[in-house]
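Thread: "does anyone have the structure for this chain?"

Original post by V.I.:
We have the sequence but no experimental structure in hand. Need at least a predicted one for the grant figures.
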Amino acid sequence: MTSLVAAPVGQAQGSRPPGLRSTLGAYLALTKPRIIELLLVSTVPTMFLAAGGLPSLWLVLATLVGGSLAAGSANALNCYFDRDIDEVMVRTSRRPLARHTVTPRNALIFGLALGVAAVAFLWATTNALAAGLALAAILFYVCVYTLVLKRRTPQNIVWGGAAGCMPVLIGWAAVTNSLSWAALVLFAVIFFWTPPHYWPLAMKFRDDYARAGVPMLPVVATQLTVARQIVAYSWAMVAASVLLWPLATGWVYGLGAIGLGAVFLVGAHRLERGIAHGRKVKPMTLFHLSIQYLTFLFLLVAVDALVF
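Reply from O.Q.:
Generated one for you, tokens below.
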């Protein structure tokens, strides 16, 4: 019978195998829990907006569990297919497959099992539309982004980022068993947010991606070109966020979205000006700001839904 965990490279013959805690930790790491946390930040407020207030707590819990399983499946399968890249990149070299603490076969089975569980659970506890959207998100992230876009085009994160927008559609569908223009606008916010969020990270780890042969935009374009693209997508993101105001929200969200957008645009333009003037820049500042922006924007969505 195949062991759940592969022996780490260099482990002495006959040495004690990893314990249950480290085994579970390795499988949990395959799901990339920090990414899942960010995805769930957008799901619950979307459900508040869809319900026009506080939705069923059971429905929220069921959607979060199913959404977490779906995201974990996509991330584990991404780790399986990208294990060769992860081994040569410093940023990803401690992932379980790169460290050989989980076998590729078991990672593949684990990822597929999570995907089946996610779709079945959402189908049983929410509705077929939410389950179908979760399946679409998994397939798009793995089959389109990981297997096709990531290694072939510098626009990989732009179009591949659509998978990360799916939680808002899943959350909306779980509540209403339908989709609406408001849900699609929230999708657009995250779609335009993804490049300004990810490209600063790719700028910091440019050498990593270049060594792995992944054509992220900072690898194939100048820093100034990347910064200008970040500014363009930032403006599109802020425009989409403000569009939600007359469409589905009140003044609490509207004024907050304008204020948050202004702060983010200042950060994006500051990065561009710094590069244009040859100054040393810290792209990770914008990366961290992007996480705070999305968190507070969706918090405003939830508060506005409860107030109005």
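V.I.: this helps a lot. Residues 1-15 have pLDDT under 50 and may be disordered.
O.Q.: and Residues 31-307 form a domain with the Farnesyl Diphosphate Synthase fold (CATH 1.10.600).
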